[in-house]
Design a protein that fits this description.
alpha+beta, single chain, 3-stranded antiparallel β-sheet, 58% helix, 189 residues
């Protein structure tokens, strides 16, 4: 029974840290975690433990560690000298925690990293100037582009853009540059 209780504290601490950092739960505070999980631990010792575990979770999340990377990372942490690493029980708790929470933490990070407002849709058409019209677009085609933008849970906003042939060529060149950059990064991964 004592082993079960001993495993609950590190697991609870890790879950609390994730609630604070990745799920923005304001009810979970460092003091609450200390009082509930480590009431017998000195405040400074708990602050050190909390900081260490928080940094380890952040490292695991930012690297989006898979099982092999996690094992190598935790092995390196257990071999650290001078109190900066983790003991075998903490490493086991981190491993269990990450294997069960990895996908949820990743989804939370992805959700937090999305730009708002986001692009929801694109529509376009090309108009040709006919005779008898104004001199503004004398005979040249005009591309009309409509962007649908919106924030999660809100109605869309629409932005309309008008391009002449030269601007369309310029935009296509920049899009090709973006695609080339993406391809270079994708090849590295």
């Amino acid at each position: 029974m004592a082993d079960v209780e001993a495993m609950k504290s590190p697991s609870g601490l890790l879950n609390g840290i994730v609630q604070q950092i990745y799920y923005n739960n304001p009810e979970i505070t460092e003091q609450l975690l200390k009082n509930e999980l480590y009431p017998d631990l000195d405040q400074d010792q708990f602050h050190t433990l909390h900081g260490k575990m928080k940094n380890l979770v952040k490292s695991m999340a930012s690297a989006d560690m898979d099982a092999a990377q996690l094992d190598a990372f935790l092995t390196a942490q257990t071999r650290k000298q001078g109190g900066g690493g983790v003991d075998a029980d903490q490493a086991a708790a981190l491993s269990r925690f990450w294997k069960s929470q990895h996908s949820r933490v990743r989804e939370s990070l992805l959700g937090q990293s999305r730009w708002e407002p986001g692009l929801r849709g694109v529509s376009w058409r090309v108009d040709l100037q006919t005779s008898g019209g104004g001199a503004a677009h004398a005979g040249g085609p005009v591309a009309l582009l409509e962007l649908e933008l919106g924030r999660t849970g809100q109605e869309s906003e629409f932005v309309c853009l008008e391009f002449d042939e030269a601007k369309v060529s310029e935009v296509l060149k920049k899009m090709a540059d973006i695609q080339e950059s993406i391809d270079v990064i994708a090849r590295r991964s």
